[in-house]
Amino acid sequence: MFGAIKALRRNGVIGINERNIRYVNALNARRSLVTVDDKCITKQLAQDFDIPTPDLYGVVRDARDMKKLPEMIAHPDGFVVKPAQGSQGKGIIVIDSPLKHGWRLSSGRRIDLGAMQFQINNILSGMYSLGGQPDKALIEYRVKFDDVFGKISFKGVPDIRVIVLKGIPVFAMLRLPTAASDGKANLHRGGVGVGVDIATGETRQAMQYDALIEVHPDTAHPLEGIHTPYWDEILMMAARSYEMTGLGYVGVDIVLDRDKGPLLLELNARPGISIQIANRRGLRFVLEKAMVLGDEKHSAEKRIEIARTLAFDQEIEIAS
Ligand SMILES: Nc1ncnc2c1ncn2[C@@H]1O[C@H](COP(=O)(O)OP(=O)(O)O)[C@@H](O)[C@H]1O
Ligand SMILES: [Mg+2]
Fold it and tell me: How many domains is the chain partitioned into structurally?
């Protein structure tokens, strides 16, 4: 693992301090953070910008809302309970289907109403929120993932993370749930990260727990060379997060629903840096180029054009 990181340094890998000082702090105005640190607000804003997100079934804020929970969760296809201010997949329950008594989770485990209410109370108390402040629980549509990812996903929905600088999508990674990650695709929970070529949407190398791997740890299916469907739409959604939030450096999480196509799951103002390991290349080169080329006056189409050129340039740079 350290050998891999050393080799990556030569390719311009950035660390957390550099990410914070040079990109997050410099490009993300404090007042804009509210739009992404609360998933209810992000959903609302996305709607204003005609960017599709999973349907919201309800929000639980207090004991009064909790009484309405049975109506909010009466969905035969399951649903998802999520802290509005959570991160890294913490506190999320992905419900697959109702059972005679209780529900089946995506991971195969069972949960009853009491345990679900207990979990929601934990969310409300702020157990999963950023600063530990009281939070809300969102109840939303459970995404039915596109079949293309069927063989490389284990009991949960994969997502696509795109890093966007000044509205230019610069790096992408497909994240896959594993037995360890309990229905969620987050890397901190043991999800697999697969580098994705920005220009084509093809998967490249993969990693789990920051170590390189070639096949999915549970399904043993090879991870390289898979084409991500709706790639153009995904790039457009990622690029438009700039107009939507005004944030100059953002991680966009997108899921592919087999009926509804790409849906915006959430936005992150401090996206993680492991995406560099999944792509086996550092972010610095492309971020610095995007810093210079990015311009508020550019349309989203123009920014995607720049993104494709940068991806191409980068291939040349690494090879030389
Ligand atoms: N509506 C949903 N349907 C199915 N899976 C979901 C849904 N929302 C979240 N997940 C799973 O949980 C993971 C984390 O969700 P996300 O909304 O990005 O929250 P966090 O801020 O904790 O990362 C996703 O990558 C996905 O695997
Ligand atoms: Mg996320």
Answer: 2
Cα of 186 to ligand 2 centre, how many Å? 6
Q: Is the same domain home to 157 and 238?
A: yes
Do 87 and 107 belong together in one domain? yes
- With a 6 Å cutoff on the Cβ, whether 153 touches ligand 1 is no
Same domain, 27 and 69: no
Q: Please check whether residues 106 and 252 belong to one and the same domain.
A: no
**Packing angle between helix 231-245 and helix 300-319, nearest 10 degrees?**
120
Q: What is the pLDDT of residue 315?
A: 60
In a shared domain, residues 178 and 304: yes
Shared domain check, 246 and 129: no
Q: Is the pTM of this model over 0.85?
A: yes
Distances (CA, A) of 48 to 243, 245, 262: 11, 11, 17
With a 6 A CB cut-off, is 87 part of the ligand 1 pocket? yes
Report yes or no: 190 and 209 within 8 Å, Cβ to Cβ.
Answer: yes
Closest CA to 242 of 290, 285, 296, 301: 296
What is residue 319's predicted lDDT score, i.e. its pLDDT? 45
Mean pLDDT, consecutive 10-residue stretches, the chain (320 aa), reads 61 92 96 91 96 97 95 96 94 94 90 96 95 95 88 88 98 93 86 95 92 91 93 97 96 95 96 92 94 95 96 60
What is the domain range of residue 106?
56-140
- CA–centroid distance, 4 to ligand 1, in Å, is 29
Name the residue among 289, 245, 79, 86 with its Cα closest to residue 237: 245
Task: Return the pLDDT at 151.
Answer: 84
How far apart, in whole angstroms, are the C-alpha atoms of residue 68 and residue 61? Answer: 11
> How far is 90 from 82, CA to CA, in rounded Å?
8
**Same-domain check for residues 15 and 157:** yes
